[in-house]
Write a structure and sequence with these properties.
The complex is a heterodimer of chains A (191) and B (814).
Chain A (H helix, E strand, L loop, with lengths): L6 H12 L12 H12 L3 E6 L8 E6 L5 E6 L12 H4 L2 H4 L8 E4 L7 E3 L1 H19 E4 L5 E5 L2 E4 L6 H14 L4 E2 L5
Parallel strand pairs in A: 8-9
Antiparallel strand pairs in A: 1-2, 2-3, 4-5, 6-7
Chain B lengths: L12 E5 L3 H4 L4 H9 L3 E5 L5 H4 L3 E3 L6 H14 L5 H7 L12 E2 L2 E2 L2 E2 L4 E2 L26 H9 L4 H8 L3 H12 L8 E5 L1 H4 L4 H14 L10 E3 L6 H6 L6 E2 L3 E2 L8 H6 L16 H13 L25 H9 L5 E5 L3 H4 L3 H8 L4 E6 L22 E6 L8 E4 L4 E5 L12 H19 L5 H5 L5 E2 L2 E2 L1 H9 L1 E2 L31 E2 L9 E2 L2 E2 L20 E2 L27 E4 L4 E4 L81 E6 L15 H6 L4 E4 L1 H6 L7 E6 L2 E9 L6 E3 L2 E3 L1 E5 L34 E7 L12
Classes of the chains: A alpha+beta (191), B alpha/beta (814).
């Protein structure tokens, strides 16, 4: 007799198995099946270690990618001394950041007074942003303040971001902004 | 954090206050549990019962915004009952220092207050120095003007009765917490504190944390295993982004941002902290080396001694300018900026008074939004109440790689810098943030090369060579941050050894102020050396047995896992807590054994130095003359509060907060239209504005929409049932939510008056999911702590009412 096991039922039952019951509610031991199923999912996959992008605990994550370079799994890194393989709901869902049809994949541009986005190329966007930066900077650059002190400052541009960047990117970003003369440089740490 | 996550397990008592560790930093809770398993007592103090409270041995409620009253009462309890660590207080703190006779405190105001400026003159609070310029001390702690006696006097007013009246915490509950926490005073007991935005997001945020830090030094809990003052930060790299200087007031490594009054490098260096006390290491004396090396990193060969290493090219703030977040959006609202970057941020939902921020963005000529998903900032022009046809702002939305699609490091709250590898390519046209900024700067530079323009020197002189074989290379940036010898050094002043030009410096001790070294951030020097990428290390040795894991990743500074760790030893260098020896002086080998010592000088009993090396006087400051709102934390009510009068003094609110007046900034206190105290907070399943998590199906299924938690008593008062649609409003705006009626919240009795508190998460926004609700920050006020300008999102006044039109209930079948 074939027992129809839905994924939800399977998980409930296997959860009970993991909790210590050797013989499952189905009347037979599922643990070898469970182990085999886990192996299948990541069999032959490449492992990459990373660290979770959400809170500041810094839990270790192992990302599994298949031969085509697609993410097929992400789970807690058991070797990581802080998290010891554990992840919270967010970290455990980080797989869905990589595999997600809602990701921004195109450069989008919204012209003044327009009601819609349009897709543009990197080259066009970066050239146009650079021209905007130059226009704002040249128009607002101030060499000395009201007291006659040198300030060499761009008054017309501000920036916020980001604690979501890597250290190296943060350093590069502040270097970029300060070379332009910005002083309104802020990010998540302030709020 | 002074300590780190695993170290929670070393504590005898853990106080979680101003955060909800089990729900918001869930995996770290295993180390709280590990401490509990060994017999530690876990205390949670919060306005709301949470899953953290459920796991606490002691849970105590307090009204939001009254932490200083609560902690001030603890200071009094410790002093009244002689529960402080006398050796530590005398030797490692400023308790014995003598304060100027100009210092005084009367009815909520310290001396030196100028009401028209809403500011203090801190010279009134100076420490007295002897003829050699060294702080005067009374080691008996009896002088009426010594810090210890002033401390005693200040907190004598924080009686159980007074604290209960203000906080709404019954006196029995206060005493239970005080007694257990003060039990960590002996040197062989360790108490730690875990806090988060529940302490920072107040108009007394810095003083909340200072109050607890004072308790930690009174009880000798700083610089030890199982102790410290530990911020549970909210983002994976908010520690690192702060370290790297992405804030208006600091450049990398916590160097002050240049200001107009410091026209030259020499002017800047004149402000270098100095100490006349030969026993004070005063590490900040090395600041000129760090700035010269930073300028060499930024401007490379163009940074020369003759041109002050390009110091002139750095932008300068006006002498007293505050360009922080709330001021930034205030200026944007006034139309000051034509251009704006929202890079990896969603201020349309994360900014306090988000409605003002959204309106402000419509006054820009252009906005660049770089993110992984669409968000309310990039799409602000088509948000609620916006007419795109009336909005001039040109918007660019650039697709960024997610964390697992690029390589680089992040720093957790415990200062561990951990390397992340790239697992997969980013989707479509998305690129890493580093790659985008690298190319964008090249485009800007090309324009200036071609056309010239205003003050092109810093743009044309910037060192921008972070590529290998034509591709952006993050390792080159990581090495730049560590620093190089940029000239051959025949005999280095530190170790008399020779170093070759182009090799990586071993650590910041080798940095020089003469242009022969470069270093992007001195704190991260030693992270990427000739021995390799230290952040990528994965070796799990634990020689101390304290969970320091010195060969797993790397931590700043110098891989020192617990800061100020020499405060854990006695004058001879022996551990004061033999059960948890963090450092021990090996007198035969003349070296420290254990953690990386802070700093490697011999014990104080010999020719050594004070342990708090980043403080000019070398000791922990019970008295804090450097803050804008006074040298001792004092209770003030939040800007918007439910009671007419501060029960502690006639100063209702912090007397030095900046009030934003006019325009969209409205504040109402004790107004019957907004009778309830409101806090914003987080849930486990979402993160920040939900900019990532609202797009992840598993998470949005678990927490699909905006809600408002309220007590059974308040629900009865407002005739609201669990699950009803309600509207939560403040003087700034309103949001719809689903009512969660729960006994987790209870009304407070504040000086005989019933005060209700409500709570709302801040993870939602109009863009996605469609029926998820709006941002809680539409309600929060534009008001900040006077020292940090962090907004007061944890205590403001609001109303909650049932929506007259309830949506049709879905049938159970569907």
């Amino acid at each position: 007799m074939a027992i129809k096991i839905t994924r939800r039922v399977f998980l409930q039952v296997s959860g009970a198995t993991a909790a210590g019951a050797v013989v499952s509610g189905l009347g037979f031991d599922l643990s070898p099946v469970e182990v085999y199923a886990q192996e299948l999912r990541i069999k032959g996959a490449k492992e990459t270690t990373t660290v979770c992008c959400f809170c500041s605990v810094g839990c270790g994550i192992i990302v599994h990618t298949d031969a085509k370079g697609k993410v097929i799994n992400a789970e807690g890194d058991p070797d990581h001394p802080i998290s010891e393989g554990a992840l919270c709901a967010k970290g455990a869902a980080s797989y869905q950041i990589a595999v997600n049809s809602n990701r921004l994949q195109k450069i989008r541009y919204r012209a003044p007074y327009s009601t819609a986005w349009k897709e543009v190329s990197w080259e066009w966007a970066l050239d146009r942003i650079a021209a905007n930066i130059k226009k704002s900077r040249d128009a607002s650059f101030t060499g000395t303040n009201a007291d006659g002190k040198v300030i060499n400052r761009t008054k017309g541009i501000a920036s916020v971001g980001s604690a979501a960047l890597d250290n190296e990117e943060c350093w590069l970003y502040q270097t970029f902004l300060r070379s332009l003369g910005l002083v309104y440089i802020e990010h998540q740490a302030r709020i | 954090m002074t300590n780190h996550y695993i170290d929670f397990r070393n504590a005898d008592v853990i106080l979680n206050m101003g955060s909800n560790v089990a729900e918001n930093h869930p995996v770290s809770f295993k180390w709280v549990q590990a401490a509990k398993d060994k017999g530690a007592i876990f205390i949670h103090v919060d306005p709301r019962f949470t899953r953290t409270s459920a796991k606490a041995d002691i849970f105590v409620r307090l009204r939001s915004g009254t932490d200083i009253a609560f902690l001030g009462g603890m200071v009094k309890y410790i002093l009244d009952n002689n529960l402080y660590d006398e050796f530590y207080v005398k030797n490692y703190t400023d308790a014995s220092f003598i304060v100027s006779p100009r210092y005084s405190f009367d009815d909520g105001l310290f001396s030196g207050y100028n009401p028209s400026l809403r500011a203090y003159d801190p010279t009134f609070w100076a420490l007295e120095k002897d003829e050699k310029g060294i702080a005067k001390r009374d080691m008996t702690l009896q002088d009426p003007r010594c810090v210890f006696q002033l401390l005693k006097k200040h907190y004598s007013r924080y009686s159980f009765e007074k604290v209960t009246e203000i906080t709404g915490t019954p006196a029995d509950d206060l005493e239970r917490v005080y007694k257990v926490y003060a039990s960590t005073g002996p040197p062989d007991k360790a108490g730690t504190v875990l806090y988060a935005m529940g302490w920072t997001q107040h108009t007394v945020g810095v003083q909340n944390i200072r109050a607890m830090t004072m308790i930690q030094v009174l009880l000798s809990n700083m610089g030890i295993a199982g102790g410290g003052i530990n911020a549970l930060r909210g983002e994976s790299n908010v520690q690192g982004s702060t370290d790297q200087g992405l804030l208006f007031h600091i450049i990398p490594g916590y160097l002050p941002a240049p200001r107009a009054q410091w026209a030259t490098l020499a002017d800047y260096n004149k402000t270098t902290p100095a100490s006349k006390d030969p026993r004070s290491i005063n590490w900040w004396k090395n600041r000129p080396k760090y700035l010269a090396s930073l300028l060499k990193s930024m401007f490379g060969e163009n940074a020369k001694k003759e041109n002050d290493f390009g110091y002139e090219w750095l932008p300068k703030l006006d002498s007293d300018q505050d360009a922080s977040w709330l001021n930034l959006f205030d200026e944007m609202y006034k139309g000051t900026f034509s251009g704006f970057f929202a890079w990896g941020m969603n201020p349309a939902c994360s900014s306090a008074h988000a409605g003002k921020a959204r309106e402000a963005m419509g006054k820009l000529d252009w906005l660049v939004n770089v993110n992984v998903f669409d968000n309310e900032t990039g799409s602000f022009w088509k948000g609620p109440g916006m007419d795109p046809k009336q909005i001039k702002t040109e918007v660019f939305q650039l697709p960024a790689a997610a964390f697992l699609e690029k390589e680089g490091s992040i720093s957790n709250s415990g200062r561990w810098m951990q390397w992340r590898y790239k697992a997969v390519n980013p989707p479509g046209d998305a690129k890493s943030d580093g790659h985008i900024m690298y190319e964008l700067f090249n485009a800007v530079r090309a324009l200036y090369q071609k056309e010239g323009g205003a003050f092109p020197a810093p743009i044309l002189s910037l060192k921008w060579d972070y590529e290998t074989n034509g591709h952006f290379d993050i390792h080159r940036v990581a090495k730049e941050i560590n620093g190089y010898f940029v000239e051959d050094i025949l005999e280095h002043p530190v170790d008399k050894k020779a170093y070759k030009k182009g090799t990586l410096v071993p650590n910041f001790v080798y940095l020089l102020d003469d242009g022969r070294t470069s270093c992007g951030n001195w704190l991260y020097s030693a992270s990427y050396t000739e021995a390799g990428n230290m952040a990528a290390r994965r070796k799990k040795t634990d020689p101390t047995g304290l969970g320091l894991y010195p060969e797993w990743s790397w931590c700043w500074p110098l891989n020192r896992r617990i800061i100020y760790n020499r405060a854990s030893v006695d004058l001879d260098g022996n551990p004061r807590d033999p059960k948890r020896p963090l450092l021990t002086w090996d007198s035969a080998g003349k070296r420290w054994v254990g953690d990386v010592p802070d700093n490697a000088v011999p014990p104080m009993g010999t020719e050594g130095a004070y342990p708090f090396i980043m403080k000019p006087d070398g000791v922990a400051s019970l008295f804090g003359p450097g803050l804008k709102d006074g040298p001792f934390p004092e209770h003030y009510e939040p800007l918007e509060c439910p009671i007419e009068k501060n029960l502690m003094s006639n100063q209702r609110i912090n007397p030095v907060v900046k009030i934003f007046e006019g325009g969209p900034d409205k504040f109402l206190t004790c107004d019957p239209r907004y009778p309830f105290v409101c806090s914003t907070y987080r849930v486990t399943e979402h993160w920040q504005t939900g900019v990532l998590t609202r797009w992840l199906p598993w998470l949005i299924e678990a927490e699909p929409q905006m809600f408002c938690e309220m007590s059974l008593e308040l629900a009865k008062l407002r005739e609201i049932k669990n699950g009803d649609r309600v509207v939560v409003s403040s003087p700034r705006g309103k949001v719809e939510a689903v009512a969660i009626v729960t006994s987790r919240l209870k009304p407070f009795n504040i000086a005989g008056q019933t005060i209700h508190q409500i709570g709302i998460p801040w993870h939602f926004g109009w863009l996605h999911p469609k029926d998820g609700g709006e941002s809680a920050n539409l309600l929060t006020p534009t008001i900040g702590d006077p020292n940090t300008m962090i907004p007061e999102s944890k205590a403001f006044m609001a109303n909650v009412a049932k929506l007259t039109k309830q949506p049709a209930k879905k049938s159970a079948k569907s």
